[in-house]
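Much of our argument rests on the idea that a fold can be written as discrete symbols. In the encoding step, the backbone of a single protein was reduced to a row of integers, each denoting a local shape. We regard such an encoding as a compact summary of how the chain folds. The record that follows shows the chain in one-letter code together with its fold in token form:
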Amino acid sequence: MADVNSKPELAPAPVLADAAPGAAEAKAAEPVPFDIIELLFFAYRDFVGDPDALLREYDFGRAHHRVLHFVNRNPGIRVTELLDILKITKQSLGRVLKQLVDSGFIEQRPGPQDRRQRLLYATDKGRSLALRLSEPQSRRISRALSDLGPAGREQIVRFLSLMVNPEDRGAVAALIDRADRR
């Protein structure tokens, strides 16, 4: 009988028949980390699932959550900056943003120098919802970190940072640092 608590061995990735010479050996030497891929799927499912029920109360989805999170963490963020962060189309953002503005969670203000700019701010109602959405996520992260010990946080931050596309890492780090200093 197999030990259900043991970690299964990772099978080498299948090699396509028309692969270049030497590709089979390279592929066999680098097993696909399915365990980590699947853990990321499950961790994401549970991490975003915590606030999903609350979002449904407002007829909002995860896109609303992401917009509200970044607007709340970055008061006065320009719409163009938000588009860059979320990597979504203007049309997708427009629909979600309109719902958040119409519902009183976000307000838009013109830029001080360029009145064509739209600067976004979470209202008191929006800040309250953003914090309510982040509370179960914060508890989940805190529980996991407490089980890892002191060096665990640094390793997780490093791992997640390295998962970000190299060309985006500097901007992501700057965004997080700027929001943390507010």
Notes: The radius of gyration is 21 Å. The first helix runs from residue 23 to 29. Confidence is low (pLDDT under 50) at residues 1-19.
